[in-house]
Amino acid sequence: MALGKVLARGASSVALLGLLTGTAAADNALKLTELSPNGADACFGRVYDAAHLKAHPKQKVARIFFYYGHDPVSRPNEEPAGSSDSSYNAFVTTTVRGGKAPEWAGGWCNHQSEDSKSGPIHCGMDCDRTLASLKVDDKGRLILSDLQPDIYLDAGSEEELGSAEFDRQALGKEDDNFRLDPMPAATCKAEFARIDPIDPALGPPLRERLKPDQAFCYGRDYDASHLASHPDQLTQSIRVFRGPVELASFASGGDAANWPDGADIAVTVTTRQKSAKVTQTYSCQGEADQWRCAASSKMSDFSCDIAQKEIFLKRGANGTMMLANPNSSLAIVDLCSKAADGKTKSDDKVYRLQPMPQSACAP
What is the pLDDT of residues 26-76, one digit of tens each? Predict the structure, then answer.
């Protein structure tokens, strides 16, 4: 295939959002009037010049921004709309000297008092960790303190990594007590957008492009020239589709509000050795920026549990669809055979599929 690596199972930023507990209730959002007097998203930041950094050699952070408001990090993804909201209300992003992109962490902030309306402002993270402490001075600047050196590392990472490696990855000894200027919300959004820039060629997520009640067909036929240059590739032709059977299945038992969870798809493969098409059904769910689709026994009986046989669908550039087959989960070989155990050993790992007329996916 044209791509040399298997699609990842999900963005780390989205995984981090999924770690929230009930402590981070959504009704805590935007209640700190010191940060946001009118309830709007608030941004504070600072970019340090060369003179400051030279005078503070133990400070690694060259750029820092604090955002109090609605999630500026997550991108439109494949998870159902109802599950994609975040309970975080505070976001910190920093770029260290010489860093090409920022890192970020999210949490929630509240007053440390019984009435939650007065006293110091503490910002927590998942796993009962501290994000920062906050205070606004008489000039409206945000004083950000108690920023932990391991804010971007796992809990207990110092013991796991060792002192030298921990010091290399952690923030510096002077990366604390930042005095940040108020800035337009758009400035923070632009800074967070640097973390994972959106490729405009990718377009909207698959769950928006592919409707619950509409059929689709994607595929690719590999010519002799391509197959000659990829001798380990077994796939000669491949189709991914939803037709009348899959549409009827979702209409009878699916929940459009949670689309694409529960969506059935069919994948038809023709290999070099066998001219006959083999079709396998998969049941999908949205996960981060892809559809995670588990093999289903709806089409026929199997001698093994094929639920662990998974493929992944992801939007490609310019209207294409990417299909990842990292663990021999396509019906190129018998899914219950020893040949289907473990990772895909041939070139049949990643496919770039083009939209096709529905007639091209007819059984």
Answer: 444 468 999 988 889 999 999 999 999 999 999 999 999 999 998 888 777
- Give the span between the Cα atoms of 197 and 11, in whole angstroms: 13
Query: Which band of pLDDT confidence, cut at 50, 70 and 90, is reported for residue 298?
Result: low
Asked whether 250 and 257 are in contact (CB, 8 A), the reply is no
* pLDDT category of residue 114 using cuts at 50, 70 and 90: confident
Per-residue model confidence as pLDDT tens digits over 3-22 = 333 333 333 333 333 333 33
Which residue is listed with tokens 């952070």? 61
Distance CA 202, CA 331 (A): 28
Name which residue leads in pLDDT, 265 or 330: 265
Q: Residue 76 has which token pair? A: 């439109």
CA–CA distances in Å: residue 198 to residues 60, 202, 205: 27, 8, 12
Inter-residue contact 330 to 269 (CB < 8 Å)? yes
The two structure tokens encoding residue 355: 């939209």
